[in-house]
Amino acid sequence: DSSVPIVRARLSPVGEGLQIAVYVKDQEDLFARICAYFERHGFSIWDARIHTTKHGYALDTFQISGSNLVDEGGSYRDLIQLVEFELTAALQNTDPLPSPSMGRLSRQSRIFPIQPRVHMIPDERGQYYALSLSASDRTGLLYAVSRVLAKHQVSLHTARINTLGERVEDVFLLDAANLSKNPKLQILLETELLEALGV
Questions:
Q1: Alpha helices in the chain (DSSP H)
Q2: Which residues are 167's β-sheet partners?
Q3: Average pLDDT of the residues of the chain
């Protein structure tokens, strides 16, 4: 029953970048805090798996990359230790979430834009809402989305994050507690998510 996060990083086994695993007692805004850390340090999340155990712990994995993962003279070993230390500290911080920066779209995304799409439907038992998003990829996009969810106190149960070239295709399973009680919240959430996905 430790509240101290366990953060482990290693070289990605599926390409460039790092693979990061986070195991911690689930808490409010956890996913947003993780995404804020990555955005603040210029990392792009191109794959993520978010899980909540039956015992109330989050087990999240991320594949990240960045244009300057290792500075000149540095090593991946140093970067791995730094990410493990700093992300652990960031998860123990209870300050308000910072405002997201609007990352720039790539030249290809500006020439061939992808119309942002948000689709939310309840499951058959009314326990969860499935939220699917698609948009042009940019740095900080996932943090902008997670911050909207945190702002409205919508809990994330699981997520599958996929970046397919210049396109993101993300699926979230949201706790229906707040959403099913307030239909206006669903409309507001969809509107704010579309704004977050736009440029």
A1: 30-40, 76-92, 107-111, 141-151, 177-181, 183-197
A2: 136, 164
A3: 85
Per the structure, the complete domain to which residue 55 belongs is given by 6-92
Domain-located, residue 104: no
Q: What is the DSSP letter of 126?
A: S
Residue 57's pLDDT is 93
Residue 101 lies in a domain: no
Calculate helix-pair angle for 183-197, 141-151, nearest 10 degrees. Answer: 160
Helix (H) or strand (E) holding 51: strand 44-52
**117-122: strand order across its sheet:** 6-11, 18-25, 57-65, 44-52, 156-164, 167-175, 128-136, 117-122
Provide the CATH number for the domain around residue 169. 3.30.70.260
Secondary structure (H, E, C), 89-100: HHHHCCCCCCCC
CA distances from 21 to 83, 85, 103, 163, 197 (A): 11, 13, 24, 18, 26
Q: Are 82 and 132 members of one domain?
A: no
Q: Are residues 11 and 44 in the same domain?
A: yes
pLDDT at 111: 59
Torsion of CA 159, 61, 56, 139, to 10 degrees: -60
**What does the pLDDT read at residue 73?**
52
Question: For 138-152, what is each residue's pLDDT tens digit?
Answer: 778 889 999 999 999
- In this structure, the number of other CB atoms found within 10 A of the CB of residue 152 comes to 16
CA distance 86 to 121: 36
